[in-house]
Amino acid sequence: MSTTVFMVNKNREQNKQSIINYDLIKCTNCYTDIQLYEKSIRKNNYWFHEKCLE
């Protein structure tokens, strides 16, 4: 199930919105979510944490 949050960006015009999608990609090696702050690598259409691919 996808969770999407609509947030109004106060630095821009009032009627513009930012869409944040909290469904994160899972690492193919360890099966945990790859957080936005973590480095990741895509190889052969699969996603990996940088540390999992080493």
Strand order of the largest sheet: 1-2
Q: Mean pLDDT score, rounded?
A: 77
Strand composition percent: 25-35%
Q: Uncertain regions: pLDDT < 50 for 5+ in a row? A: none
Helix segment count?
1
Residue share in helix: under 10%
Helix and strand sequence? EEEEH
- Total strand count, please? 4
Q: How many angstroms does the end-to-end distance come to?
A: 31 Å
Structural class: mainly beta
Radius of gyration: 15 Å
State the gist of this model.
The chain is 7% helix and 33% strand. The chain has 54 residues and is mainly β.
Question: Can you describe what's shown?
Answer:
The protein has a domain at 24-54. 7% of the residues lie in helices and 33% in strands. It has one helix at residues 50-53; strands at 4-8, 17-21, 40-43, 46-49.
Layout of secondary structure:
Blueprint (H helix, E strand, L loop, with lengths): L3 E5 L8 E5 L18 E4 L2 E4 H4 L1
Antiparallel strand pairs: 1-2, 3-4
